[in-house]
UniProtKB/TrEMBL annotation, chain A:
Assigned protein family: Belongs to the very long-chain fatty acids dehydratase HACD family.
Superkingdom of the source species: Eukaryota
Residue intervals passing through the bilayer: 149-167, 187-206
Function: Catalyzes the third of the four reactions of the long-chain fatty acids elongation cycle. This endoplasmic reticulum-bound enzymatic process, allows the addition of two carbons to the chain of long- and very long-chain fatty acids/VLCFAs per cycle. This enzyme catalyzes the dehydration of the 3-hydroxyacyl-CoA intermediate into trans-2,3-enoyl-CoA, within each cycle of fatty acid elongation. Thereby, it participates to the production of VLCFAs of different chain lengths that are involved in multiple biological processes as precursors of membrane lipids and lipid mediators.
Protein keywords: Endoplasmic reticulum, Fatty acid biosynthesis, Fatty acid metabolism, Lipid biosynthesis, Lipid metabolism, Lyase, Membrane, Transmembrane, Transmembrane helix
Uppermost EC category: lyase
Membrane topology: Multi-pass membrane protein
Name of the featured protein: Very-long-chain (3R)-3-hydroxyacyl-CoA dehydratase
Pathway: Lipid metabolism; fatty acid biosynthesis
Annotated localization: Endoplasmic reticulum membrane; Membrane
Automatic annotation (TrEMBL), chain B:
Keyword line: Endoplasmic reticulum, Fatty acid biosynthesis, Fatty acid metabolism, Lipid biosynthesis, Lipid metabolism, Membrane, NADP, Oxidoreductase, Transmembrane, Transmembrane helix
Pathway involvement of the protein, from the record: Lipid metabolism; fatty acid biosynthesis
Cross-referenced PANTHER family: 3-OXO-5-ALPHA-STEROID 4-DEHYDROGENASE, VERY-LONG-CHAIN ENOYL-COA REDUCTASE
Residues of the Ubiquitin-like domain: 4-81
Protein name (record): very-long-chain enoyl-CoA reductase
Organism: Tetradesmus obliquus (Green alga)
Membrane association type: Multi-pass membrane protein
Length: 238, 309
């Protein structure tokens, strides 16, 4: 239903903007990782590591809302709904939980989540940018389609753990909820919402992960075949 | 009147059957012939296409009513087959989609002890007037839809894939429970009664408008006709999908009349989906009625919801 213009042929100003956007995100997440590692070097206090990285992560996540608009306007061939749901998931974990409930920052999953996000995004955004410039090196493509195998499962487990650990605080502090009676007759129990999300998370995540697996087998086919031929030739020479 | 032998293949190129037909036969008759060969694939499940030509992603779909000669098919021609999966009648899907909300919503009104456990609900005669009007309106709306399914609507396609049944029912049943939960809640705060009465009165006007639109649409084609026609009369003179206009306004008025965010979300979701359908229909009619070669030109009209669309 959405009209997708092939973004590699789009107006040079649009391509330029997208390259810039991807560069900013790529550099930003690298800074986030650097901040986390630097804090970790100073001492093993998990909260300090988290806070050091979150200085960058908050802005990067806020800015990432733009990707929904990119998809909605068609300058990127992606679904705005999918982008929105993914953004919402991360924004929830970061702002509502990790930032909104400071006690959670003492858990390992808080800084670990930031580090995993950083590692993933440091690869993904430059990959998009360089693809737009038709200048993407093969090793980056290799990284893009292999790093997620470790990073994605680690990421989703950290997020789910964070949400799980945050539930008691949601209830005791009555966070982010609307109660009746009120003028517009609406109620939203955030704790119940999160419990439902925790049930849906693995299913939603798997949809994402399996589509990446499919892309991976398509994109990494050629180098594997070339390697196979070389190995076969080498075998013959022996 | 020429006998031809068609090569029916799967999309991977495997021949499934060689079918002997007359070139003046329709595609529908061809499908019946294949069904006789393979009992699993009743005609509604079959999609037949020509092989893709240069530059095409996929070949032209063969319409049931068209003659085989219209597609230039001759002996030895290849026709590609696709299984559309288990099919279910449109009218059956509509019935189940609408029957759910018809039953689910009043459950929340009549049985608060089940849906709001531990909360004191007022006895039925003491409930706010709005709650009573809302349940009556909601039930009327879905009863009307079921009536239209069997006595008014004429369907362009006879069937749809069965997984649509589950998807559609989830949508309707889910939203019915969502809206019903809040309107019938023991802690419900009713808006000004006069405002509600005016809103529901206008909403009923919308229901009747919507019904009139549906009868106009069903009368566009005589039985057996399959050509697209330009709708006209009543609101159709100004709006392509006037039936959607009336439907959306009905729900907007329901939302204002009940002062319920959940109803607003339901209205927005429906409007969003209808906008997609309306845009498609509007484009299709504009493309068909382009004013060239003696065809009518599709008049300038709103798509679905003046002044926004």
């Amino acid at each position: 239903m959405t009209k997708h213009r092939e973004h590699n042929n789009a107006h040079p100003a649009i391509r330029g903007y997208l390259v810039l956007y991807n560069a900013v995100q790529g550099i930003g997440w690298s800074l986030c990782l650097a901040a986390c590692l630097s804090a970790a070097h100073k001492g093993p206090d998990r909260q300090s590591i988290f806070l050091a990285g979150s200085v960058y992560a908050r802005w990067l996540q806020f800015a990432a809302f733009a990707e929904i608009l990119h998809a909605g306007t068609g300058i990127v061939p992606s679904s705005p709904v999918t982008n929105f749901l993914q953004w919402l998931g991360r924004a929830n974990a970061l702002f509502m939980f990790a930032v909104g409930i400071p006690e959670l920052q003492h858990l390992s999953c808080a800084p670990l989540m930031l580090i995993v996000w950083s590692l993933g995004e440091m690869i993904r955004y430059p990959w998009y940018g360089l693809q737009l410039l038709h200048a993407c090196p093969a090793w980056l493509t290799w990284l893009r389609y292999n790093a997620f195998l470790l990073l994605y499962p680690t990421g989703v487990v950290s997020e789910m753990l964070l949400l799980w650990k945050g539930l008691p605080y949601l209830r005791s502090r009555d966070l982010y909820s609307i109660h009746m009676p009120n003028k517009y007759n609406f109620a939203w129990d955030y704790a119940i919402f999160i419990q439902i999300m925790l049930v849906l998370y693995p299913y939603l995540w798997w949809g994402n992960f399996s589509s990446l697996l499919r892309q991976r087998s398509k994109k990494l086919k050629a180098p594997v075949a070339a390697g196979g031929q070389r190995a076969a030739a080498a075998g013959k020479e022996d | 009147m020429t006998l031809i032998s068609l090569d029916l293949q799967s999309r991977s190129g495997k021949t499934l059957a060689k079918l002997d037909v007359d070139s003046e036969d329709t595609v529908g008759q061809l499908k019946k012939k294949f069904h006789a060969v393979n009992k699993k694939y009743y005609p509604a499940r079959q999609r037949m296409t020509l092989p893709a030509k240069e530059g095409q992603k996929s070949g032209e779909v063969l319409k049931d009513s068209a003659k085989l000669s219209e597609y230039g098919l001759s002996s030895g021609s290849v026709v590609l087959f696709k299984d559309l999966g288990t099919q279910i009648d449109y009218s059956t899907v509509f019935f189940f989609e609408y029957f759910g909300p018809l039953v689910i919503y009043p459950l929340f009104f009549f049985l608060p002890q089940i849906f709001y456990p531990g909360q004191k609900a007022l006895p039925l005669d003491q409930r706010p007037l709005v709650q009573k009007i809302a349940v009556a309106y909601w039930m009327f709306h879905y009863a009307k839809r079921i009536f239209e399914t069997y006595f008014v609507h004429t369907f362009g396609h006879a069937t749809m894939p069965i997984k649509n049944l589950f998807k559609n029912c989830s949508y309707y049943y889910g939203f019915a429970a969502f809206v019903a939960y809040f309107v019938n809640h023991p802690a419900y705060t009713a808006p000004d009664e006069t405002l509600s009465l005016v809103c529901f009165a206008l909403a009923m006007v919308c229901q009747f408008s919507n019904f009139r639109c549906h009868t106009i649409l069903s009368n566009l084609r005589a039985p057996g006709e399959t050509a697209y026609k330009i709708p006209s009369g009543f609101l159709f003179n100004y709006i392509t999908c006037a039936n959607y206009t009336a439907e959306i306004w009905g729900w907007i008025l329901f939302t204002i009349g009940t002062h319920t965010i959940a109803a607003g979300l339901f209205t927005a979701a429906g409007a969003f989906q209808m906008a997609e359908w309306a845009r498609g229909k509007h484009k299709r009619l504009q493309k068909l009625f382009d004013g060239k070669d003696g065809r009518q030109k599709y008049p300038k009209r709103w798509v679905m919801f003046p002044p926004l669309l």
